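lol forgot to send this yesterday, sorry. struct tokens for the thing we talked abt
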């Protein structure tokens, strides 16, 4: 497979949305578009991962997930990438360190759904991530309360940017994070797999 390294001009702010995308769906597209708008990003890169260390079951083959993601996400400022496979990184903290080396004049913002914030303290080197890049958190169905009560939210409460000032996140220095409520979209990769709408 040909690995894709996207282009970003010096000074641009790039949002990073990582995940197995198994499969990519309209919910991923929805939060990506909201992130571009709410956080004032120049681009969003999807980081389609080789596998999720927190999940016991392996995802569908990477090339299959990449193809689906590129079909689903059609936007001039969004790029679907397999950067983690190219870099050989397994954890988000490693990926961020390599990206910051490769793109020293680009500002990165880590994007995730509120469901990921609720379990963020389980991630490898999660404090390092929070202190390396600003984080944009987008609310998803049923996860608002658990995310706001999470260990990471409590620890980094002094660095939270109120949702009404979300445009400030892109230029904030880490640690900084912003939680925004966006119109709900309940599409789920798990549900799609369960109904037979996706197979490896």
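and heres what i got for the seq, position by position
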């Amino acid at each position: 497979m040909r690995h894709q390294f996207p282009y970003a001009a010096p000074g641009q702010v790039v949002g990073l949305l990582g995940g197995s995308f198994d499969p990519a769906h309209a919910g991923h597209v929805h939060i990506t578009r909201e992130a571009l708008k709410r956080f004032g990003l120049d681009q969003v890169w999807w980081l389609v991962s080789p596998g999720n260390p927190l999940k016991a079951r392996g995802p569908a083959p990477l090339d299959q997930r990449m193809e689906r993601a590129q079909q689903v996400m059609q936007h001039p400022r969004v790029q679907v990438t397999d950067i983690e496979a190219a870099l050989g990184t397994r954890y988000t903290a490693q990926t961020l360190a390599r990206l910051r080396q490769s793109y020293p004049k680009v500002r990165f913002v880590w994007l995730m759904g509120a469901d990921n914030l609720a379990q963020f303290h389980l991630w490898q080197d999660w404090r390092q991530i929070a202190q390396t890049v600003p984080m944009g958190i987008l609310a998803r169905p049923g996860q608002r309360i658990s995310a706001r009560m999470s260990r990471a939210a409590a620890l980094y409460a002094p660095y939270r940017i109120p949702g009404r000032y979300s445009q400030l996140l892109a230029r904030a220095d880490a640690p900084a994070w912003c939680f925004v409520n966006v119109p709900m979209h309940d599409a789920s990769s798990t549900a799609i797999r369960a109904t037979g709408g996706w197979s490896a």
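The first strand starts at residue 13 and ends at 19. anyway ping me if u want another try
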